Amino acid sequence: MGELSKPSMEDIRLCPTHGYYRGEKCHCGYVGEVILDRVRVEKLGRLVSGILRHFPERFKLEMDEDGWVNFDDLVRAVKRKYRWANQWLIKAMIYSDVKGRYELREGKIRARYGHSVKVKLSDYPVCDKERLYYGTGEEEAHRLLEIGIKPVNQAYVHLSTTIEKSEEVARLRTEDPIILEVDAKSAVEDGIRIIMANEYIALAEEIPPKYIVRMMRV
Ligand SMILES: [Zn+2]
Fold it and tell me: Is the pTM of this model over 0.85?
């Protein structure tokens, strides 16, 4: 099952002022030394997100109901597969991740979204957006208008907070995206659980068809 974006394939470098970043130059213009090359960024990212989203048990890691795993245990698991890895490289990957995929706190780590394992994410804030967006292909869009949006191979439906973001996601799967607009406010008022994973991504167990209020071609 794919990450909802193309791999960024950029080296991680270190700026003495701004910390870890991806790409050639820091936003300040400084060209730092490469901490982790793009091939290893890709490998490490796939493994860490795989463990935290899909198969913690494959590495005998205990995950609590909100998706948290002990960070030291994760580092040990990762090192079993990639002997070159260490906690600093894993932290460099997490802190330079502009998509907000991970959360590291109090010695624990979790994925913020993308889970196929059942997680409650009980501490996530309830969605406060009026509208959310879901991009898909034409045929699928018509089907969803009838049956609603349900998670496929995932624990939650992933919705975007902007039309642009939903288009970005949809373009990975189709050349002619259709964007469905969801009346998130009414859904939440009616008791549908929609939570915010980060600034751009909202998660829902399901969006019944009546909350899909508009279909847009982009
Ligand atoms: Zn900098």
Answer: yes
